[in-house]
Amino acid sequence: MDQATTPAIMRALSQDAAGAPDVLKVIKARRPVPGRGEILVRVHAAGVNPADWKIRERGVFANGARPPFTLGFDVAGVVEAAGEGVTLFQAGDAVFGMPRFPHPAGAYAEYVAAPARHFAPCPRGLTHIEAGALPLASLTAWQALVDTAHVRPGQRVVIHAAAGGVGHLAVQIAKARGAYVIGTARAAKHELLRSLGADELIDYRTQDFAETLRDVDVVLDSLGGPNWARSLRTLRPGGTLVSIVPPDDTFPAKEAEAAGVRAVFMLVEPDHAGLREIAALVEAGRLHVIVDEVFPLEEADRAHASGETGRTTGKIVLSVTP
Predict the structure, then answer these.
(1) Domains delineated in the chain
(2) What pTM, to 2 d.p., does this model score?
């Protein structure tokens, strides 16, 4: 379908003010038009991430954008049209991506227009729902472990919140890199995490990882706060703590330097090459995404409320276009 026959009006989810999940409302909006270097994607699925409900609650994006706006970064769908100069994709291609992050992408909508190189071909064999669960979480894990920490075979890698959206993918990516993987999670999640490749598991409710773990090469932390300093105690000299939680006054950069280790904050970026690496792992059977719950676009408030409980195993996804 070309732009001339694509509907000019689409459904989108918008919020007019900061607040609880009930501020999310379905509206009619004008379909975006792809500019130079952009593609127009008909969205079939949109992943739900902690960034979404934090932005919804605060009512502001990283670039200062304020309501009304449309949330969402994770996109899986089909290219409807390609803008001038685009050679990577054509109409009909199935794609997935995390366009424009951390700036507004508007993924909670029937159509998204964004730079072509913020997408990659969907991994073969995945449904749109599964592909929609992948981009932000998998790119976060990939960029933290591969691009930032340079995980190598034989290294000891700790993944905190190992059963979460980022965590369960990070376990598999670290394992694919040849690491010995240690995960922290509730005991009820241990069997699942073993099936994903975790070598060692710690129930954070009954065990203190900071007292039992030593000589760790890499820690991936998605919790922040006191977990930062406690994680430093487990690292060997030359080790790396990668936080995906923005640092505050408690971030132990000076303590890390004094201990001869590295502590860094990493913000995920749109990454065509990284998405292709992730797709290759999926197609090789070495990376499996777990979709915990699927909600229709109209029930995004329920999706957010569920995510905010902190009990999700894997990812929550919105089904946008059947």
Answers:
(1) 9-134+289-319 (3.90.180.10), 137-265 (3.40.50.720)
(2) 0.95
Is 6 a residue whose pLDDT tops 80? no
Q: Which residues contact 211 (CB under 8 A, 6 or more apart)?
A: none
Q: What is the mean pLDDT of the chain?
A: 96
Q: What is the DSSP string of 262-315?
A: EEEE------HHHHHHHHHHHHTTS----EEEEEEGGGHHHHHHHHTTT--SSE
Specify the DSSP class assigned to residue 162: T
- Residue of higher predicted confidence among 275 and 3: 275
3-state secondary structure 84-123: CCCCCCCCCCEEEECCCCCCCCCCCECEEEEEHHHEEECC
Question: Looking at residue 5, what is its pLDDT?
Answer: 63
Burial class (CB in 10 A: 0-12, 13-18, 19+), 3: middle
Say if residues 5 and 37 touch (Cβ distance below 8 Å).
no
Residues in the chain: 322
Instruction: Note whether 43 and 94 are within 8 A (CB).
Output: no
